[in-house]
Amino acid sequence: MNFKVDKIFSEMILKKLNSGEIGINNFESIKYFPCDNHENILNISDKILSFKFNKGFVEDNLKKYFRDYSEFLNSEEGDYYIFSSCELENLGLMLFPYLSFGILNGGSATSYFDLTKNRRLNEDLYVLYESKILEFKEKFGEFPKGITPAYINKDGSFGFSFLALKIRHLLMVAKRYESFYGRRIKPSVFQMTSCKTDEFISKFLDDLFVDDFIKSVNFCNLNKEDIFTAVQPLVYCYEKLNSSNYQYFTFKDNTILALPAGHGQNFKILKDIYLQLYRSGKRFIYIGNVDNVGFTINFKALAVMALTNCSSGFEFSFKSKTDFKGGVLAVNGENRLTCVDIGGGISSEIIQGFEDKGNELLFNCATGLFNLEYLIKNIDQIIEKMPIRIIEQDKEIGKYVSVEQITWEVLRLMENPLILTVDRSKRFLPAKLFIDMLLNSNYLEDSCGYCCRKKGNNSSSNKDLYCSLSALLSKDYGLISGCCKWTF
Q1: Architecture of domain 7-439 in CATH?
Q2: Which entry of 123, 252, 425, 458 is 20 to 30 Å from 215 by CA?
Q3: Neighbours of 224 (CB within 10 A)
Q4: How far apart are CA 480 and CA 473, in angstroms?
Q5: Which of 298, 278, 277 has its CA nearest to residue 288?
Q6: CA distances from 139 to 65, 104, 142, 273 (A)
Q7: Among residues 114, 118, 436, which one has the least CA distance to residue 289?
Q8: What confidence tens digit (pLDDT) does each residue in 399-450 have?
């Protein structure tokens, strides 16, 4: 199979590496880590029961979406309208026709099933469940992660895939909207695939829409052709020759390794789709990673975006000690909010030292909600200024460096972004590595206590993960829990 490689971008990166313009550990200057003491941070977790917004802003913004918005204005206090949590949920549902849901689906499962990375995450669990890991790698190792099982049932059978769950969720929302407001609409969906994943995903969607898992909730007749798709080209990887020189990384048969350069390229790859969505009447886009089971529509977040007219909203929750990979909220040297990736944008030692002093950090939940009008007006500038990260990799095929543009680093390019603190258990349940998926599924229940105690954690945390997964599967995806298997 011949894959399209962005040779111009690849050559530009090679020149910048060899000139020293970019490099490994090119960390951003950070002033401090805000937690709850920043004006752009808004807590929309379940423990917050009411919210207040400036009357002028509310009236100016709601009239963009509703002829008569007075039904939403049930309570006031001075210059503010008061909204209960439930009222925000209902408002968000009413805004569903203005939303398009974007699935970042470009990742092949190179890291997910990589034996070296999984072993490094937890040596004890890897040894104990090596046979299961090898079984999955044999069956799904060549597939995009999005079409592999999102969980394992208690009887050891495969669960439904990440992508199938996302489509089912959107169809359930469309049915809920119709039930409340009497209008049938198709959910608006778009995705970014890559040259390595597009053919697999296209075939998967052909089969998915004739499967009862989707047919049972597809009252609006959504089909594959309704999903906007753009394909991300690949970028060459590199190897370090000495302290200042790089060349393209080759492996078997002198083939140059080429991989997708991160979901942060979506602004470039999906630009035409974003313009098309705006012309069709959409005013908000949600983007998130396919492998996060917690990435569903947050109606409170959508309502807040409409009420405030902010450029964007990013979900964060408090970082746990086990969050070794991902982004944390920070204020940079230019006094702008930013999301710095641990290891790529900031050293893990700085993060560890900050936490060791008893400080809390806000951890990125890998979802972005964008005001589409703002986005298309600024998209060329965003594409030009998106940071480029050089990441050291140590995998089965060897040591090399890859290029990555991290989606959530767009935060620092946004004017007046909202930082929405959320309930982690409902919004963030990713599976970056296969062992993560086993832990989320509590498949390791019988022996996890022993293994996790050796790592200094409490085995109850793994049951918490499974409780989160169970709640999401039943509420957001409409599945039914049997004695050993989830059904619909």
Answers
A1: Alpha-Beta Complex (3.90)
A2: 425
A3: 15
A4: 8
A5: 298
A6: 47, 23, 8, 33
A7: 436
A8: 999 999 999 999 999 999 999 999 999 999 999 889 899 999 988 664 444 4
Phi, psi of 433 (to 5 degrees): -125, 160
Angstrom CA distances, 60 to 53, 54, 69, 306, 308, stand at: 12, 10, 10, 10, 9
Nearest alpha-carbon partner for 370 in 326, 416, 328, 427: 416
Q: Is 402 left (phi over 0), alpha (psi -120 to 50) or beta?
A: beta
What 3-state DSSP class applies to 14?
helix
- Record the tokens describing residue 434, joined without a space: 């296969």
DSSP string of 140-168, one letter each residue: HTTSBGGGSBS-B-TTS-B--BHHHHHHH
Given a contact cutoff of 8 angstroms between Cβ atoms, the answer to whether 149 and 158 are in contact is yes
Whole-structure pTM value: 0.92
Whole-angstrom distance, CA of residue 479 vs CA of residue 488: 5
Residue with tokens 């669990």: 125
Q: How many residues does the chain have?
A: 488
Q: For 79-227, list the strands marked E by DSSP.
A: 80-84, 99-104, 188-194
Residues 363 and 215: their CA atoms lie apart, in Å, by: 37
The owner of tokens 């995998």 is 395
* CA pair distance 355, 33, nearest whole angstrom: 11
Which of 100, 70, 486 lies closest to 275 in space, CA to CA? 100
Nearest to 447 by CA among 151, 137, 126: 126
Cα end-to-end span (Å), the chain:
37
For residue 54 the two structure tokens come to 């400036």
Reported as a single tens digit per residue, the pLDDT across 447-483 is 444 444 444 444 567 788 999 999 999 999 999 998 8
CA 281 remoteness from chain centre? 24
For the purposes of burial, counting CB atoms within 10 Å of the CB of 47, is it exposed (0-12), middle (13-18) or buried (19 or more)? exposed
Sorted by sequence, the CB contacts under 8 Å of residue 16 that are 6+ apart come out as 22, 388
- Beta-carbon count within 10 A of 377 CB: 12
Mean pLDDT of 37-52: 95
Distance CA 229, CA 299 (A): 24
